[in-house]
Amino acid sequence: MSVIRQLRDLGMEVELDDFGTGFSSLKYLKGFPINCIKIDQSFVKDALISETSKAIINGTIHLAHELGFTIFEEGIEEKAQLNYLIDEGCDGFQGYLLGKPQPLSYYQKGEI
Predict the structure, then answer these.
(1) How far apart are CA 38 and CA 74, in angstroms?
(2) Three-state secondary structure readout of 66-84
(3) In this structure, are residues 32 and 17 in contact, taking their beta carbons and an 8 Å threshold?
(4) d(Cα 61, Cα 22) in Å, to the nearest integer?
(5) What is the pLDDT of residues 14-71, one digit of tens each?
(6) H or E element in which residue 57 lies
(7) How many Å apart are CA 33 and CA 87, to the nearest integer?
(8) Phi, psi for 99 (deg, rounded to 5)
(9) Pairwise CA distance, residues 91 & 100, whole Å
């Protein structure tokens, strides 16, 4: 916790990745000095057909905003997923629809 606070004091932002799976817990939202929550990609995969996944995403977006966090969704692969998340107020997105992972050499050559 002290290392995370030190990083934030230096101006770094701290994200809670893969939220909703593994060891993620609502307790982390209360105790960790984070700036952003990234919802795990497993929820967006079936969000357009699963009311349960949709409810989890919508609730997490609302909760994040109420706590003053930025909210991102990972795993965006379809335009319909992106449009849905924009409509729900998600702040940021990552996934193959928006850009594929690049090798380190891509960045070392100054191509960005």
Answers:
(1) 7
(2) HCCCEEEEECCCCHHHHHH
(3) no
(4) 19
(5) 788 888 777 667 777 787 788 899 999 999 999 999 999 999 999 999 999 999 999 9
(6) helix 51-66
(7) 28
(8) 170, 135
(9) 20
